[in-house]
Structure formats: structure tokens, C-alpha cells
């Protein structure tokens, strides 16, 4: 159970503590932040409402801890990460329980997230040893006009203090995707988890605590974004920000100054289906991509662009699969569970009502109970409807019928988002041409969009983000190049 057993020290009464200086602490504010269970719509957990002074303390401690951590042998850093990964996987059940109750993630998917996170940490440890164990050696006479009088040695060194801000939908996995690379590269880390998902994140951080990482190296600060959000992201002690979320990221990027940024800010992932596509394959991936975790994924299929000649057939196939989706509480492993909050449900409903007023075809009746919205496929959607452009982050999927490939590419590229897209066709030549034309960070051919596997590059264009994620890219991003040049008194050449 959450907050019990090895996790007993992270809770005081009914309020979970925050983590700083290698200890679990209560905030001096005396205040807490409630976490609402999306299913019951009642308070499930409470976390500390940390103060700006406590943020200052975490930053101060992180800076000091990073100096000695950077001197820790690379193999030792990797060893501790492997230990944390094993502890995380060993305690997957109570962490998964938090995900079920905080964000209504289906129970089996919650367990999968925790196990995947452990695997990510271990892979990061191994990849870090390989990447950081290599340097470059350059000689000066490879550039015109120079003799061999300079030897250049390059290596990768840490940036300093990393501020990590994951989103509610993967509060454990997207946290460790930032924590792992930060730690293996010799950085310290301050984690600000989302409110919905904070308790799962606190349990995850305790696994790093149990692994024996140095005090102060990792902090986990909880609280209201309105009180400590800007204070964190604009803090002079931060040397890099890794953020996954929505519009807030744009505001952060404008305030961050010269701090390196790694951001993924959402998408309107388009699925283009051509006449020659395997429609059963396409339909299966559209339902999986559009409705997994109730559509609350940045890489969810957000709009289907299908050629008119096969649209009727595809829509019928998708409708048949949607009819088989189970709807209900996450504890029952239902396919469609409540969305994360009432405000999210209201926003989704606003998109649906707009489409209704503008005569979209409802393939199922619209049904909502509290935060639970039944899966809905909208056919004959037009570009003047909000759902054609806005990201619902819920189980509602629009279908736009197109008359040419160019029309589909144009709609995809007209979006302000550019995270991922996919194309279904049996013609690999067409697929590559369309992939090149789509202004997205990734294009999946004959599969739904997906972030993983976690070592693949993951990036967005336009408003979908800055920089690239994925284990290798994150390791490189959280380091900078250090160069040492040896100047020789006379040119040095290999003797014959």
C-alpha cells in the first residue's frame, strides 16, 4: 500500500513529505495541496506546499552536492542507478497503486509504467558509461595552414543543477527519463512533480533514496505552481530545465534566459491513411493510438486524415473496434477511464459541442459522467471545427476526409504542433516521400505514434518543443564539451 512498509517515512499523518538533503521533511508553510482522485472526484492524497525559501535551500544543497558527485567515478554512478532501478521494480505495486488513484491510469498500465521506468534507468546507466567514457583527440594540422603543434582533447562535463518537470500522464516514467541522464552525467537534480502524480513521484524518489545516492543530490519539491512555479524555473541556481507538458513550457522558455532547455509541449499527431493501406492494420492502430489511456498522451493519434475512397470502410472498422472498448474505473483495467480532472473533461466537452454545432457526424452518442467520457469518433470533421486543430487530451478522435495526399500533408503542416505523425500505405516510396514532407519530429510508417522505445530520439518541431529527448540525446544535452589543448614547442610528426 502507498505510504506503508519501506515508504512509511515519506508520510506524516495524511500528508506526504517533500525530499531535500537526503531527508523527508514537512514544509514550514504548514499548508498542503490536495490531490483529487479523478474517479471519485474526492481528495485522495495531500502533499506539502513548499515555500520559496525551501526551494532556495534545495538549490543551494544541490549545487554543493553536484560538485562532489561530478568527481564520483562513472562506474559508481552507474552502479547506484542500477540499484535504484532494481528497487523501483521491486516496489512496483504501491507505486502503481498511486498512479491508479492519482491519474486514473488502468492498473495494468500503471505497473507497466513502473517496470518500464526501471528498465529506462538501467539502460541510461549503461549508455552513460559508453558515451561519457569516450572523448575526442584532434590534431591541428588537419586544418589548412597549421603544423602539428597542438593536440586537442575533448570530453563531456556536467551542466550543474538540472530542474526536471514531468507531466501528469507519465509522472514516474517521464521523471526518470530526466533523472537518469542527469545523474549519470554528474549533475544534481531538483524534481518538481505534477500535482496529479506527485505521490507516485515521491515513492519513486524514495527508491533513489534507498539506493544510497549522496545527500542533497536529488530533491523533490511539491507545491502550487502559482507559488513556486516561476520561482523554480527562473531560479539563478538552475543550469538546465527539462520540461514535459503543455502551454506552460512556452512561458518557461521566454523566462529562462540562457539556460539550456529540453521541452516537449504536446502535439496534434496526424494519421494519414492512403487508398492502398491495410485498413485493418490502420484501424487497429488508430484505436490504440487514439484511445490508449483515454487519449491522454502527447503521442496519441489526434486527427485521422483518410482518403475519401476508403473513408467509409475505415470508419466502419474503427467504429467496430471502439465498440469493444471497456469503460469504467482504472482498478478494473478498463480501456477508457476518467480523464485527469473536471477542467479537462469540460474542455473536451467544449470541443465536442463545437463539432456538434457545426454538424460533425457522431459515430457514437456523446456520453459523460463526471470525469468519465465515453470514447467518441467524429466523422466528417471540417477545418472550421476546433477539434480539427486543438489537442483534446481525451477519448475523442476526429476524422477528416481528404481527396489527395497533398491535402493531408497541408493539414498536418498547418498545425502549430509538430510532434509526431503516421502514414499508412503499402508503398514504401510514397511513405518516405510523405514522411519527408510532414513537419513533425517523428513519422511512424504503418504504426501509431509512440514515444518509445525510450532510447529512440524523441523531439517536436514548432510549438511541440525544443531539443530532443531519448536516453542518448538527453545524456548529450545535459553535458557540455570541455576542451584541453596541448601546445607543443615544435611540430610533432610520427617518425618513419
TrEMBL record:
Name of the protein described by the UniProt record: NADP-dependent glyceraldehyde-3-phosphate dehydrogenase
Name of a matching Pfam family: Aldedh
Active-site residues, Swiss-Prot/TrEMBL: 264
Localization (cell): Cytoplasm
Main location (coarse class): cytoplasm
Keyword Nucleotide-binding: no
GO cellular component: cytoplasm
Family label: Belongs to the aldehyde dehydrogenase family.
The species this protein was found in: Anisodus tanguticus
Cytoplasm keyword on record: yes
Documented EC number(s): 1.2.1.9
Residue ranges occupied by any Aldehyde dehydrogenase domain in the UniProt entry: 24-483
Keywords: Cytoplasm, NADP, Oxidoreductase
GO molecular function term, any single one: glyceraldehyde-3-phosphate dehydrogenase (NADP+) (non-phosphorylating) activity
Catalysed reactions, semicolon-separated: D-glyceraldehyde 3-phosphate + NADP(+) + H2O = (2R)-3-phosphoglycerate + NADPH + 2 H(+)
Residue stretches spanning the membrane: none
Entries under InterPro entries matching the protein: Ald_DH/histidinol_DH, Ald_DH_C, Ald_DH_CS_CYS, Ald_DH_CS_GLU, Ald_DH_N, Aldehyde_DH_dom, ALDH-related_metabolic_enz
